[in-house]
C-alpha cells in the first residue's frame, strides 16, 4: 500500500527519538507560542516547519542582494549575505550530525540568523546605532525619542523580523518555536537587559547559555565568516597568498591534511587547498573538542538519559560547542589578520563610506518628511500606533501632524529603522538615487518591494 511507504510525522518523530543523542533537542520538545497555520503538518516535524517558513520568507530572499564584505553587484563570486547563510547552514549540519544533534533545528536557526542584517554589511548596523543614539546632527532626533527608542543589533533585529515584521499569515511574524527564536538571538552576543524593542522575550531564556544546536550555529557562523572572507579577499587581491601562508593556521592546516604545497601549482589551486583545509581543520576540531566537553559534562553530573540531561542543561557553558584552546588561539590570529588586511582594505572602506552617506540620507529623508516613505510603512504607523494615515491628512495639516505625532514617537523612529534595515543594497541605492540624485529615467520602486 502507498500509505505504508509514507514516513509521516509520527514515524519521523520515532526515528528522531531513536537516532539523536541524549543531549540533542527533540522536535517534540519544540514550544510554539503562536500558531499561524490552522493545522499541523502530517509529514513534517516542528523544526522542519520553522526551517520552511524562514526559507519562504521575503526577508530570506532579500539576503541575495545584501553585502557580506565585498559588494555583490560588482562581480559574480564574492559572498552575499545569502551565500554566507547557506554556508553556515552546511557547516552547522555537518557539526550537528557528527555530534548527534538535531540537524533540522540547526538548519532553521542558521537560515534565520542574519535576517536582521542591514544592507552594506556591518557598516549599516553601525550607522543606525549612531543615528538612534542622537549622534548625527543632520537628523536631530528629539531627546524623548533618543531616550526611549533603543538601539540596533542585527541578531535582535533578526528576531524582530521573524516575530513581527514578516506578514505571511493572519498574525504578525512566522510563529517559530522558542528553540529556533532563541538560537537566532544567541548566535552572537546578547544581554539579559538590552535596549531593543523585541515583540516578546518569552521563551528566550536570556539568563542562560543557548542550547547546543544554537551553539553549533554560533561556531559555524564564525568558521564560515572567516574562511570565506579570507577567500574573497584573496580573490579580490586585498591580501597576497604569501602573507597568508605565514600565519600559524596555514602550518596547522598542512599538518592536519598531511599535504604540502606544490610550487608548480597555480595560485588558485593553492588558495583552494588552503581554504578547504581550514574549514576541515576547524570543523574537525570543534567536533572532537565539543564531544569531549559534552562527555565531561555527562560524567560530572552522572547523566545517563534525556530527562537527567534536561535537569542539568541550564549549567551548560556557552562554549560547550567550541574550539580547543590551541585552535582557538590560531583562529584569533586569523580573525585579526582578516580585520587588518581585508575588512580595513581601501576597497572595503570606500564601500563603507558610501554606505554611511546612503543610510544617513535615507533616514533623514524618511524622518524629515514621512510622505517619502512607501504607503505600506505609513499604514503600519496607522495600524500599530493609531496615527492618521498621512496620505489622507489634508495637505495644510500634514506638517502639524508630523510634528505633533510622528516626530514625538519612538515607535515611528523604529518603523523607519525597520524599513531601512530590511533594504537590500540595491534597493537602498535605488532609493538614495531617487531621493538625492533624481533623473528623468528613474522608476519609483518603493511600493513594489
Distance between the termini: 47 Å
CATH class of the largest domain: Mainly Alpha
For CATH, the homologous superfamily of the largest domain is named as Hypothetical protein af1432
- Approximate shape: globular
- Specify Rg, calculated over alpha carbons: 24 Å
- Counted beta strands: 0
Q: Which fold name fills CATH's third level, the topology of the largest domain? A: Hypothetical protein af1432
The low-pLDDT segments are: none
SSE pattern, N- to C-terminal: HHHHHHHHHHHHHHHHHHHH
Mean pLDDT level: 91
Helix vs. strand class: mainly alpha
Strand content: under 5%
Number of domains: 3
| Main beta-sheet strand count, sense and barrel state | none
Tally of contiguous helical segments: 20
Q: How much helicity do the residues have?
A: 55-70%
Supply the CATH architecture of the largest domain.
Orthogonal Bundle
Keywords:
single chain; 449 residues; mainly alpha; Hypothetical protein af1432; 20 helices; 0% strand; globular
Notes on the structure:
The protein has helices spanning 9-19, 46-55, 58-62, 81-98, 103-112, 122-132, 143-149, 154-165, 178-185, 212-236, 241-244, 248-257, 267-300, 306-312, 325-343, 346-368, 375-385, 395-404, 410-421, 425-436. The protein has 449 residues and is mainly alpha-helical. The protein is globular and about 75 Å long.
Task: Give me a quick take on this structure.
The longest helix is centred in the middle third of the chain and has 34 residues, at 267-300. The chain has 3 domains: 45-185, Hypothetical protein af1432 (Orthogonal Bundle); 212-345, Hypothetical protein af1432 (Orthogonal Bundle), CATH 1.10.3210.10; 347-448, no CATH class. The protein has helices spanning 9-19, 46-55, 58-62, 81-98, 103-112, 122-132, 143-149, 154-165, 178-185, 212-236, 241-244, 248-257, 267-300, 306-312, 325-343, 346-368, 375-385, 395-404, 410-421, 425-436.
Amino acid at each position: 500500500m502507498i500509505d505504508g511507504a509514507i514516513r509521516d510525522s509520527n514515524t519521523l518523530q520515532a526515528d528522531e527519538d531513536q537516532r539523536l543523542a541524549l543531549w540533542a533537542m527533540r522536535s517534540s520538545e519544540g514550544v510554539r507560542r503562536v500558531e499561524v497555520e490552522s493545522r499541523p503538518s502530517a509529514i513534517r516535524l516542528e523544526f522542519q516547519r520553522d526551517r520552511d517558513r524562514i526559507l519562504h520568507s521575503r526577508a530570506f530572499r532579500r539576503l541575495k542582494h545584501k553585502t557580506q564584505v565585498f559588494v555583490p553587484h560588482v562581480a559574480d563570486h564574492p559572498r552575499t549575505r545569502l551565500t554566507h547563510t547557506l554556508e553556515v547552514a552546511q557547516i552547522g549540519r555537518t557539526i550537528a550530525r557528527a555530534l548527534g544533534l538535531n540537524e533540522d533545528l540547526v538548519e532553521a536557526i542558521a537560515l534565520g540568523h542574519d535576517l536582521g542584517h542591514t544592507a552594506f554589511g556591518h557598516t549599516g548596523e553601525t550607522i543606525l546605532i549612531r543615528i538612534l543614539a542622537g549622534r548625527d546632527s543632520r537628523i536631530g532626533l528629539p531627546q524623548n525619542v533618543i531616550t526611549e527608542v533603543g538601539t540596533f543589533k542585527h541578531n535582535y533585529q533578526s528576531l524582530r523580523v521573524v516575530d513581527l515584521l514578516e506578514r505571511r499569515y493572519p498574525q504578525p511574524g512566522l510563529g517559530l518555536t522558542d528553540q529556533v527564536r532563541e538560537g537566532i538571538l544567541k548566535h552572537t552576543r546578547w544581554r539579559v537587559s538590552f535596549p531593543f524593542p523585541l515583540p516578546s522575550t518569552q521563551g528566550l531564556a536570556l539568563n542562560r547559555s543557548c542550547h547546543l544546536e544554537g551553539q553549533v550555529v554560533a561556531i559555524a557562523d564564525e568558521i564560515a565568516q572567516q574562511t570565506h572572507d579570507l577567500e574573497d579577499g584573496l580573490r579580490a587581491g586585498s591580501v597576497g597568498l604569501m602573507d597568508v601562508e605565514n600565519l600559524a593556521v596555514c602550518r596547522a592546516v598542512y599538518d592536519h591534511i598531511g599535504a604540502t604545497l606544490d610550487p608548480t601549482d597555480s595560485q588558485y589551486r593553492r588558495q583552494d587547498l588552503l581554504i578547504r583545509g581550514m574549514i576541515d581543520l576547524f570543523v574537525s576540531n570543534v567536533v572532537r573538542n565539543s564531544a569531549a566537553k559534552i562527555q565531561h559534562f555527562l560524567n560530572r553530573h552522572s547523566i545517563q538519559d534525556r530527562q537527567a540531561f534536561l535537569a542539568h542543561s541550564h549549567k551548560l557553558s556557552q562554549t560547550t560547542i567550541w574550539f580547543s584552546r590551541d585552535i582557538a588561539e590560531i583562529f584569533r590570529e586569523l580573525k585579526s589578520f582578516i580585520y587588518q588586511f581585508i575588512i580595513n582594505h581601501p576597497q572595503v572602506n570606500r564601500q563603507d563610506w558610501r554606505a554611511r552617506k546612503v543610510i544617513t540620507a535615507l533616514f533623514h529623508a524618511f524622518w524629515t518628511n514621512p510622505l517619502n516613505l512607501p504607503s505600506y510603512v505609513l499604514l503600519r504607523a496607522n495600524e500599530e500606533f493609531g496615527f492618521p494615515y498621512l496620505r489622507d491628512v489634508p495637505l495644510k495639516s500634514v506638517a502639524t501632524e508630523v510634528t505633533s505625532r510622528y516626530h514625538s514617537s519612538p515607535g515611528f523612529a523604529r518603523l523607519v529603522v525597520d524599513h531601512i534595515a530590511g533594504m537590500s543594497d540595491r534597493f537602498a541605492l535605488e532609493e538614495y538615487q531617487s531621493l538625492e540624485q533624481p533623473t528623468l529615467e528613474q522608476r519609483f520602486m518603493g511600493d513594489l518591494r
